[in-house]
Amino acid sequence: MTLKEKVGQLNQKLYGWQVYKKNGSKYELTDIFKKHVEEFQGIGALYGLFRADPWSGVHFGNGIPLEDSKQVTNLVQQYLKENTRLGIPALFSEECPHGHQALDSTIFPTHIGSGATWNPVLQRKASQYVAKELSEKGVHLGLVSTLDIARDPRWGRTEECFSEDPYLASKMTEAVVKGMQGGESDTTEVLAVLKHFAAQGSATGGHNAGPALIGERELREIHIPAMKAGIQSGALACMAAYNEIDGIPCHANHFLLTTILREELGFNGVVMADGVALERLLHLTNDKELAAKSALEAGVDLSLWDDIYTQIETAVVNGIISEETLDQAVRRILYVKFLLGLFSNDYKTEDTSFADREEGKELNLAVARESITLLKNRGNILPLNKDKKAISVIGPNADSVYNMLGDYTPPQREGAVVTIKDGIAQTVGKDCDVFYAKGCDIRSTDTSGFEYAKEIARKSDVIIVALGGSSAREFGMAFHNNGAVMNVGKAEMDSGENIDVLDLDLGGVQEELVKELACIGTPIIGVFIQGRPHSISHIEQYLDAILIGWYPGQQGGKAIAEVIFGEVNPSGRLPISIPFHSGQLPVYYNYKDSGGKREYYDGLGEAMYSFGYGLSYSTFHYQFTSVETARITQECLSQAEEVRIPVQVTNQGPYDGNVVMQLYMKDLQSSVTQRIKELKDFRKVWLQAGESKTITLTLQEEDLSIWNLHMKQEVEKGTVLLMIGDSPDRLIEKELIIE
Q1: Which of 95, 163, 518, 566 lies in disulfide reach of 542, CB 3.0 to 4.6 Å?
Q2: 269-283 pLDDT, tens per residue?
């Protein structure tokens, strides 16, 4: 390969929507694309060919419909084959944080909702389906947020995180990789690009792309495990994070991207830059060639939209970058292309088979059902009987299509999304009147809708008030060149990329709406549609029941209605703690137990609802099958022997349902400060009413290891406290002795 051809393979400079023109049902490639191919004698990857949203400006009128997808990808590949010396095909990369961000794709709950399912098996099925939708279009790389750990919910991208906890996030990351890439299979058509590596969820102040002021131990304990789980599951692609760690940007961090990622964890794949992130290295270098050197030597293989890796050829000629360093990155790109079979495809035949959309719809509904988290149920008001004469569905999220879906969402066809109002109307009997009033907007201070909302509430047997936030982008918004929103203006958006908040209270006059409705005296069911936890301490007393719906996806309204009326027994558990007040932050459950005071002079220190919390319509009783202290030796652990903790669980309630048994531990004798408790295993198990089962939770060597004084991972002798339960407020305890 010539130097120019090598540099071409590392570039992902173009936006996908720049490369084609659509004229009716015909497509042609643009001069922008052809000029780029000529300049670099190829193209490494092409991002967002099918992306549809307000930033790209692509919609149903000008975008690529499903039936034309392979025609366009083949058009690109055929051009590369015929108009470059080597004819190397391009990788197509697409966003799919909760479904492919393309026209007519299935949009699942955002990851914070998927994390609330505590069901990796279900996540694996959903990810496998997403891969089908990518593959049917000829896409190779699916960009999925799995690595970010939500340590500050003020961060707008909290909705993209599975959890505040590294273990839960790791199990879900494992599910994503195995689902998208076909599990144990040696061949795959799609690779998951895991993002973002690393520690983006610990940005100071919750600021998007802000610095992570953490040490190496925090990095290893909290932010590395999900990537490790992904690699062990077969991950061959990841994206570096925008943030810096202790003064070093991730895109220039050799210790992170080479020492830890490749040498310690054994990663053999491709590291992709985040959008124009390489240009941010100019803050360090003030020179494009030096920025390219910094990133390439750190371990970044593939660029994204920047004008930094376009300078590599000149940097090699000038002796700034060695060609050997360049070759290493090119080999990784070509390896992935060979692995995905790009060189064995003639790009002439068109496969017209498509993923079964009904399968996607059912999976979508299944994830939404299990994500819904019941936090309060005063007097067992839920589930509601269907014999109500009148129900009011009120609130800014009661009948808003795009507010159900979260950020990174494509335009939706009419009828593709079931809102809460739709779900309630479809679920209740024909003799029940379902009234609707918006009441107020997400962010506006206009209260003119209150009177009508109260008018219909007075005529109703129960009020369902749908509150929360919105990550819905709108056409006409201004965006940065990396797609992040610049200014929401008068739009409702208060969450999503670059939408960080100072205060976790509900926006606008939503709290006032609840208080006004409470004066009527009709029971109120609160449903929160949100991408981050909101502080609800000011209105909790007025709500007889509280359901967290997260951003539940296209079938979310149906799932919520099924839970409200008892067709589904809620089984969601919080993947992130909910504070009383923003001033408490950080309030994550696994804080360091260093002897410091947790409470404030003027308030509590603990969360209002902790990680792992959630109610069911059933009550579960559990006990250890043995009261004896558990014991194991270091030697046995090193030989892969497990600690097995059997627990007998009985469904004592009147409803069949899932129990989510959670195993936490705390090392009581260690060389470094430990956390108050850490999740180490969990099981989600179905129990019929009155049924008992023995559920066995396990601990392995790595679960019991710590990063010691010398930053070595090892199991230390001593006593470990085990805590098991279906909710953090109902834990039974037992000691484990490591000898």
Answers
A1: 518
A2: 999 999 999 999 999
Split at pLDDT 50, 70, 90, the class of 654 is very high
Q: How far is CA 425 from CA 209, 345, 495, 530, 557, in A?
A: 42, 49, 28, 22, 10
Read off φ and ψ for residue 31, nearest 5 degrees.
Answer: -65, -30
How many whole angstroms separate alpha carbon 566 and alpha carbon 439? 27
Nearest to 564 by CA among 539, 540, 546: 546
Alpha-carbon span 477 to 488, nearest angstrom:
7
Q: How far apart are CA 462 and CA 474, in angstroms?
A: 33
CA 595 vs CA 222, 538, 598, 718, 729: distances in Å: 21, 31, 9, 20, 21
560-580 pLDDT, tens digit each: 999 999 999 999 999 999 999
**Residue 2 has which token pair?**
């010539």
Dist CA 146 CA 176 (whole Å): 8
The 3-class secondary structure across 430-495, one letter per residue, is CCCEEEEECCCCCCCCCCCCHHHHHHHHHCCCEEEEEEECCCCCCCCCEECCCCCEEECCCCCCCC
3-state secondary structure 392-424: EEECCCCCCCHHHCCCCCCCCCCCCCCCHHHHH
Q: Is the pTM of this model over 0.90?
A: yes
Rounded to an integer, what distance in angstroms lies between the CA atom of residue 381 and that of residue 525? 9
